[in-house]
Amino acid sequence: MNGESGTEAWTHFPHLGDVGVRGYGRDLDEAFENAARAMSAVVAPLELIRVERVIPVTCRAADPSILLLDWLNAIIYTMATEGMLFHDFRVRIDGETLRGEMEGEKVDRERHEPSVELKGATLTELAVEQQPDGRWCAQCVVDV
Amino acid sequence: MDLSQFEKVAPYQWMLPATGEMRVPAVIIADEALMADMDEKVAQQIRNVTCLPGIVRAAYAMPDAHWGYGFPIGGVAAFDPDEGGVVSAGGVGFDISCGVRLMATDLTAAQVMGQQQELAHELSRTIPAGVGSRGRIHLDDEGMDAMLSGGAAWAVSEGYGDGEDLARIEEQGRMAGATPELVSAKAKRRQRDEMGTLGSGNHYLEVQEVAQIFDKEAAEAYGLSKGQAVVMIHCGSRGLGHQIGTEYLREMALAAPGHGITLPDRELACAPIASELGQRYLGVMRAGINCAFANRQILTHLARGVLEQFFPGVQAPLLYDVSHNTCKEEMHDIDGRERRLFVHRKGATRAFGPGMGHMPPPLSAVGQPVLIGGSMGTESWVLAGDERSEAAALSSACHGAGRAMSRHQAAKTWTGSGIQQDLAAKGIIIKSPSRRGIAEEAPGAYKDVTRVVQVAEKAGLARRVARLRPMICIKG
């Protein structure tokens, strides 16, 4: 997985019916960006997705894990309603407010061969935690 | 799964006695082999379900149960509104009223095989499937509300299918008590371009052959005979249901403490049936059920149109349509007393025995059709609800094979084109826009459905009526 200097930035963890997405980062912002990359990669390889459009989004929640849930679900909603796939993400969290950007393009079924649509980010395995090494981890299971 | 934690209370029933926070026992219906293969998470999740307020008799896991979110997939639980019972958005899931329907055509499998390639091609062109597909029907606000209120009955009134179809759908194709006006604008927006679409993942439209009959009387009542061609559709309420699930899971999880509910797992997000939130969810969830009914009805109409092109005058009446992600208000006999309960079936099929429910006479006499969708390229099954299913599992049965391997592992193990070639050698054509999607749905990633239905029969959930073999599979 793409990562900063030898460390893993995002990964998928197994869930029998669905798929777990996990992002790491030096701060919460980066961990949320990487969780979004992990989720986007469930649908299609990120390297196949071009950046032709940037879509902003704002989410608010007091609980950081609910904020992650809202962020991922905002991405899923935009993918579904705009017919988009996303290559990359930008996140800035300020207190209870997340301001994010999703960078991607319209689905091209031949070029992207998207494998599965995302139904929703779930509360299963939902966690936003700082690890002993100081890095942040943001994760949950996504229903597909 | 560690079997030592269970008491084997019947040949196919494994019980976790109610201890600690558990309000009732948990019961898994399986044989030793299925139990041994089952994920430990199933025991943990079904135990968690027993801790919810107002649960009645027991929480059940079906023979195809696997690790879900909140409820296990294959989980059944009923709640009494008069005893503080809850309705759980997590217990219904994101794909509200995902289900299976079967059309019993008057074609033979040989006729289909004679034009298999051409028919598969035309179906794949006509049935919108996969990520990025769009339906041909785009509803305005008024049309959306009419659809969410009318379900398949709305679809028929719009020219999709026949009035006779409605008697062969649960709730006669229209779920009463839907509140379209309470469905969010986002949920309706998400559905705007998705009417009459199949979706992706394990959803499919298949043309199948009736390969084997097990119960002649029931098969006759269902209009099935060996060598007949049938069409099976597996899909749900599309983006609308997904968005309702997303919104209410969050709201119920955050509201639980205010309702005095301690959730053993946040994914079991729920609210008292009697609460404003519980009632609001029930109304929009029922609108989601109508969306699924309407969606499958439109797909049925599209499939019939394709069949008509190849076989003019063909008849393809609906055998039955049954959902496996729902919460339904039902009467059940609990310790000799009829009680009004809200039965959650998450990846589980209602399985009314003979005489139960509101089914047309030919079906009622032998029991409700229980449609078990296979995984891509593997067999599907038609079962008949067993009268013993009421006592065994609140009139419920399994819904499919259940996954045995994660999508990630499947994609590492197989390739889409390899799977397509393997199945082609067996006379099965797979059409999908995504090779990776095919790999993730590889037949080997699922449990042996034959064993699952054998156990369902032996456990008294549903009797085997017919085995179906795929010929054409259209996937997202």
Could you characterize what this model shows?
The complex is a heterodimer of chains A (144) and B (476). Chain A has 144 residues and is α+β, with helices and mostly antiparallel strands. Chain A has one domain (18-143): Archease, Possible Chaperone, Chain: A, domain 1, CATH 3.55.10. Helix content of chain A is 27%, strand content 38%. Chain A has helices at 28-43, 64-82, 109-112, and strands at 10-14, 19-25, 53-60, 84-94, 97-106, 120-121, 127-130, 136-143. In chain A, the strands form two sheets. In chain A, strands 1, 2, 6, 7 and 8 form a five-stranded antiparallel beta sheet that branches. Chain A is globular. The model of chain A is unreliable at 2-6 (pLDDT under 50). Chain B has 17 helices and 19 strands. By secondary structure, chain B is α+β, with helices and mostly antiparallel strands. Chain B starts with 6 loop residues before the first strand and ends with a strand. Chain B has a single domain (3-404, 446-475), classed as Alpha-Beta Complex (tRNA-splicing ligase RtcB), CATH 3.90.1860.10. In chain B, strands 7, 8, 9, 11, 15, 16, 18 and 19 form an eight-stranded mixed beta sheet that branches. Chain B has helices at residues 32-37, 40-49, 89-92, 109-114, 116-126, 141-157, 163-166, 185-191, 216-222, 238-255, 276-310, 361-364, 389-393, 407-413, 416-425, 435-440, 449-458, and strands spanning 7-10, 13-16, 26-29, 59-69, 71-79, 86-88, 99-108, 204-213, 228-235, 270-272, 318-323, 325-334, 337-346, 349-350, 369-372, 380-385, 396-397, 429-431, 462-475. Chain B is globular, with a radius of gyration of 21 Å. Helix content of chain B is 35%, strand content 26%. The interface between A and B is large, with 38 and 54 residues.
